[in-house]
Amino acid sequence: MYANVARQQGGAEQGPPGPNYAQLPQHQHPQQQPQQPQQQQQQQQQQQQQLHPQQAQAQAQAQGQAPGPGQPQNHPQSQSQHQQQQQQQQQPQQNPGQPHLMSQGPSQGNLGGGNIGANIGGNGTGLPAGISASALNIINAANSSAGQAGTGLPLPIPTDQGNEERHTSDDDRVFAWILELMHGPNREQALLELGKKREQYDELALILWHSFGVMTCLLQEIISVYPLLSPPQLSSPASNRVCNALALLQCVASHDQTRNLFLNAHIPLFIYPFLNTSSKSRAFEYLRLTSLGVVGALVKNDSPEVISFLLSTEIIPLCLSIMESGTELSKTVAIFIVQKILMDDMGLNYVCQTYERFFAVSVVLSNMVAQLVALPPASSRLLKHVVRCYLRLSDNGRAREALRQILPEPLRDATFSYTLRDDAGTKRCLAQLLVNLSDNYE
């Protein structure tokens, strides 16, 4: 029927995609229809707009007029059925002898589900790492227009924009406080806020070390309290301020990428005057404890470079002094540093090289044992480090011969059995120490 109608009409106008021309014989082609009257043309445009407003608008713009009277009308379909049909057709069909009208404008197959999805990540489900915010906005706008031009929904783009914004916000805060530290009037507040970021911001040590002028500012804070050490005039606010600066130095000392740089600059030497104080006030005790924390951060990773540097300084005599007269917490950190030095072969040989060095260490350890006995309940934390120091000294032949004579008696009997009742590791170390000091041990 369509072929007869086409032969009867003599126009040359193009029509919208309606019938399936593939079913017609190959020698018959539908002829283009003449222009309809304006009233019928408007009615047909209204019907097409009811079926699919966006498609009708695209057709009208590309064609310039409505189809002729001889062409068949589109059968009414629901919008959902029409959407399913368009989703199955990724490329519009084209008549062999006549260009298809929809090829002149954007199609859903090219815009919504194909090219943009391939540009994003191959399947349109994710973004490549490091995509910029401007590119993200462009892609979102393109997907929004694709959802409007076609019948499909906009392409979903899951991103980690929230995490990036939080990380950027942390960066901004850190850099703002660093600028305040170097140039602003609130340096004390900047020290406090940056100290709070030590555990939250992994790159803080790198930023502190590589930011121009930051280490100089921290050293200025440390040097500024030197006149208050002797005679002891350090106030609690001044102690808190310099301890905040020391906390940032500890952050730099504990980082793998800045530790050796920290040592090569000999920055630990600037904190040794704080370890050489003897005042019992809370401000000085807090200052000593924080300074010990910087050295403890250095030795924590068992680096031979750190041990070599510390042995070239006076860290062992300073720690021995604190082990005798400091508070329990300061004693614990100080003996931890000595133990770490002894665990290294270089440190053990250094202590046992002369009688004076060995005697100084052994006397302090013996005094600590006497203090633990005199002040029950004994601190198992301190006792653990004392036993391990003795055990390590027993690995040296000359020191082992001396320890057989001078090892404190409370370590030989059951004096600390109650203290070590829940510490199986320290009990094993103590038993091994006694074995090493026995006459049958070679």
TrEMBL record:
For this protein's source organism, the top of the classification is:
Eukaryota, Fungi, Dikarya, Ascomycota, Saccharomycotina
Q: Give one Pfam family, short name only.
A: Rcd1
**Any one Gene Ontology BP term:** positive regulation of transcription elongation by RNA polymerase II
Sequence ranges of Low complexity compositional bias:
22-100
The similarity comment for this entry is: Belongs to the CNOT9 family.
Q: Which domain of life is it from?
A: Eukaryota
- Chain spans, region Disordered: 1-117, 147-167
**InterPro entries the record matches:** ARM-like (IPR011989), ARM-type_fold (IPR016024), CNOT9 (IPR007216)
Origin species, per record, is Sugiyamaella lignohabitans
Q: What is this protein called?
A: CCR4-NOT core subunit CAF40
Give a GO cellular-component term: CCR4-NOT core complex
SUPFAM superfamilies documented for this protein = ARM repeat (SSF48371)
